[in-house]
């Protein structure tokens, strides 16, 4: 069998399997997926007065959004907006606020995106065992479509921002069973949204040859929102640019790693700060300040806090990966027994005052 006939055989066989998979998939999954309920996205409360809003600045911040996803905030300037009129932004309730970005630069690893979708934290993904990679400036998504039978699929797509803050993946190539198929789909009246039928992943919508991603719905809180001016693919990362950016990577890397909040009301732990003046600083000289809102109180316990002359609070915190084993339960407050004996040493690393 010559090479030309072999190619025809492979394509024909692939189309037969693909058609069978689609037919089985429509029979077994379509009626189920149409009943999925997608939750509403968490949005900022637009009625918050300007004098109750909290300004924020951050540099070199690794912000964990749940156990399976994180973003790398090279720098941002914006506001921490409450999502409920009668509830101040609360560090212990990440859904109580949205980070509205005016200007900034935020990275996300493509491999983290695949890990998050594969985790099933936000519903079953349209493809199983997904991989997301940068291939020559385009997003390459590969995985297995389960449409009655398992079919390996690869999509090559162009990533662009939309005016409403969403991201769009325009699919330019589709390979099924390692055979290019996009140009042949018309023969079977098959579209991309047939290949990946209605998904129950909130924030992901397939329409025609486009995949729309609403990160405020797709990703866990704390949510980040703003006018995206551009999206770049750099090695294994997608870089999102908000507003105008003038500083270079080298200039940004010289800043300390920190998160600063100013104005409005902010709650954390048992404390509520009005006219907020709070700065969280990375105690180490690492590339990124690893801040996890699920464990930030433990990071505070093993850090150092002080009050400024303006009644603000500065906290110097260790990165999450620098906490000792069992840190969450090891750091306890002083007991009455300790208070009774002035000769016992101070807990943790508290230094005695200078005389």
Automatic annotation (TrEMBL):
UniProt superkingdom: Bacteria
Protein name from the UniProt record: Uncharacterized protein
Upper lineage: Bacteria, Pseudomonadati, Acidobacteriota, Terriglobia, Terriglobales
